[in-house]
UniProtKB/TrEMBL annotation:
<feature type="domain" description="Methyltransferase type 11">
    <location>
        <begin position="53"/>
        <end position="144"/>
    </location>
</feature>
<dbReference type="Pfam" id="PF08241">
    <property type="entry name" value="Methyltransf_11"/>
</dbReference>
<dbReference type="GO" id="GO:0008757">
    <property type="term" value="F:S-adenosylmethionine-dependent methyltransferase activity"/>
</dbReference>
<keyword id="KW-0808">Transferase</keyword>
<protein>
    <submittedName>
        <fullName>SAM-dependent methyltransferase</fullName>
    </submittedName>
</protein>
<dbReference type="GO" id="GO:0032259">
    <property type="term" value="P:methylation"/>
</dbReference>
<dbReference type="InterPro" id="IPR013216">
    <property type="entry name" value="Methyltransf_11"/>
</dbReference>
<keyword id="KW-0489">Methyltransferase</keyword>
<dbReference type="InterPro" id="IPR050508">
    <property type="entry name" value="Methyltransf_Superfamily"/>
</dbReference>
<dbReference type="InterPro" id="IPR029063">
    <property type="entry name" value="SAM-dependent_MTases_sf"/>
</dbReference>
Length: 260
């Protein structure tokens, strides 16, 4: 039984770790989970008292975190198994199935659209952005996080992750949003804080590469690496504005844009 099981979660709604989405509570996945979690934690206050759509809610932990502050959270996912899991595990979230290229919501239906670590999976990113503009109320927020192509798949024409269709750098993400009719409020980046930089030094310069190397080789994890990965918390990541640090050096991009 993995940690997505709970007393009120039927076994047939448990999600399996495939590499397509992150799942909380797994030691070997903890680094990636915490790297995603920090964005939810820091941006959830922007959703306080508002109607929110998480487009691509995956396992649902993020939608549930946002639901602590928001008036209403709709969690949308294309995968039936993910929707069933969210319904069983996170009752505060209204989980629905649908296509991100044709959001199953009426016009001007929500105040915020959240799309964290999803847009890189989409074939028609521009169509998705157009749909976000359609369902958002005037002045509504679109908040997107995505791996920074420059650091995530360096020097490659195609993404390292087989589930990604198109990765973006900061300039490309900005262009996509502006062309879609949005006004940029901020471009932020996710970076390793001091504790993670120490872990990088202990593991040949990159704790990320150390994990990927084991995964690609399907090799056992050294005890020290597993212990370090399991110990990572969301507080070990810094989210900084582009004016504070070079955005092209970031691990993930975090864009906040406004629908006029």
């Amino acid at each position: 039984m993995n940690s997505t099981d709970g007393p009120d979660s039927p076994a047939d709604t448990t999600l399996v770790l495939t590499g397509e989405r992150t799942i909380p509570g797994l030691d070997v996945e903890n680094y990636w989970f915490r790297r995603h979690e920090v964005v939810y934690e820091q941006l959830a206050p922007r959703c306080a008292g508002l109607d929110v759509l998480e487009a691509g809610c995956g396992e649902g932990y993020g939608a549930d975190l946002i639901a602590r502050a928001a008036r209403r959270v709709i969690g949308l996912d294309y995968d039936d198994a993910a929707v069933a899991h969210v319904r069983a595990r996170y009752p505060r979230v209204e989980a629905i199935q649908g296509n991100l290229a044709a959001l199953p919501l009426p016009d001007v239906a929500v105040d915020v659209v959240v799309n964290f670590q999803v847009i890189e999976h989409l074939w028609d990113q521009a169509q998705f952005i157009a749909e976000c503009a359609r369902v958002l109320r005037p002045g509504g927020l679109l908040m997107i996080s995505t791996p920074n192509r420059i650091t995530f798949s360096p020097g490659r024409d195609t993404p390292i992750n087989p589930f990604h269709t198109r990765e973006l750098n900061a300039a490309e993400l900005t262009e996509l949003l502006v062309d879609g009719g949005f006004v940029m409020e901020a471009m932020l980046g996710v970076f390793h804080g001091p504790a993670l930089r120490e872990m990088d030094a202990r593991h040949g310069g990159s704790i990320i590469d150390a994990q990927i190397e084991r995964a690609v080789a399907d090799a056992p994890w050294p005890a020290e690496l597993l212990a370090d990965v399991a110990a990572v918390t969301s507080a070990d990541f810094d989210i900084l504005h582009a004016t504070e640090r070079t955005i092209d050096d970031s691990l993930d991009l975090v864009a906040i844009a406004v629908r006029p």
